[in-house]
């Protein structure tokens, strides 16, 4: 009976775990829907800002050299976006490996490295490795607003404009599908201009600007960098929740399979005990019949 009780307790514990993993999977799926909606809302804004910057920059190159001209690289900043929580597979580790490969390459060229990190996992990982972290933001929620990134964006723009850094990298996980997430390392500053896009828009672009081009361009660059970071955070959140939903689904399926195996073992032991008891009863009754027959 002790074995049956132990197995029964294990089945109850796994059923409770299954309920938790199933609930976490459903929560992750709900968040995925909300995050996708936010990404779809901000993507047109980023694309339009980039189009405007591209045309203004190409038509007024004397004002745009600060943001588009590539300088000799002496110092760079990595803006790293990671998750605050675990239970999302190897999502963070793949991104960190890609970043470390780039950092090792830059260090061989005697280029100084600074980090700005979003997410607790990234902060703990790179702080342990001893990198210089100039700013970080942890415990962010899924109701993050664009205005929450104003201070960090100001720091980045000031560093670049004052030539304290020569390049800004943005590292995050891009969601491809429910089974695949791509770790990306993009260059945000200096800007990469699209000549083909400019040629397509040039003849349609006939606007008169009320303010100085320099001021307009500075404002647009600030909004572009901030919205790009914001969208990248959302994409990383989407990858995180999708990965967590998959991990929790696998955990739920494993729990179901484990419960089936334990119930099979439970039923086998119970059946063996019943068979043994029946055998003992039959043997006992046979002994009684023989006893009365002879005596």
UniProtKB/TrEMBL annotation:
Keywords: ATP synthesis, Cell membrane, CF(1), Hydrogen ion transport, Ion transport, Membrane, Transport. InterPro entries: ATP_synth_F1_ATPase_gsu, ATP_synth_F1_gsu. It is a peripheral membrane protein. GO terms for molecular function: ATP binding; proton-transporting ATP synthase activity, rotational mechanism. Pfam families: ATP-synt (PF00231). Belongs to the ATPase gamma chain family. Produces ATP from ADP in the presence of a proton gradient across the membrane. The gamma chain is believed to be important in regulating ATPase activity and the flow of protons through the CF(0) complex. F-type ATPases have 2 components, CF(1) - the catalytic core - and CF(0) - the membrane proton channel. CF(1) has five subunits: alpha(3), beta(3), gamma(1), delta(1), epsilon(1). CF(0) has three main subunits: a, b and c. This is ATP synthase gamma chain. It comes from Candidatus Purcelliella pentastirinorum.
